[in-house]
Amino acid sequence: MELVSSAFPVICQLLHSRQVTDVVEAVDFFTSAFQFGMADAIIGVQQMLVLVWSHDQAVKDAVAVAYKKLYLYTESTTPRYVHCFLDL
Q1: In the predicted structure, residue 72 carries a pLDDT above the cut 60
Q2: Which whole-number Å values give the CA distances from 47 to 85, 86, 88, in the listed order?
Q3: What is the pLDDT of residues 19-57, one digit of tens each?
Q4: Which pLDDT score is estimated for 2?
């Protein structure tokens, strides 16, 4: 867990890469990390938001899918979903 968290700054830099595949993979990484309940993943999720104004359609699509997955179509098995109901 600590090893993955130490990679967050580097992966945040990949969100601003010129290579579309780097950006899309970084978006996928932060989406998965956030779904697994890693607290520091919110930094990458927040940085992804500005990518909706990217010139590349693949990047826009990846960010749109990520936000839909995180905030609109949550599965009941993700730690974030379970945590919301445990607080009730």
Answers
A1: yes
A2: 27, 28, 30
A3: 999 999 999 999 999 999 998 999 999 999 999 999 999
A4: 79
| Helix, strand, coil share of the chain (percent; to 5) | 75, 0, 25
**Rounded Cα distance, 14 and 25, in Å:** 8
- Kindly state the tokens that stand for 66: 């990520």
User: Which pair of structure tokens corresponds to residue 72?
Assistant: 């609109």
Kindly list the domain boundaries of the chain, sorted by start residue.
2-86
Tokens of 48: 């992804």
Q: Is the dihedral of CA 82, 66, 25, 44 positive or negative?
A: negative
Q: Cα separation of 75 and 72, whole Å?
A: 10
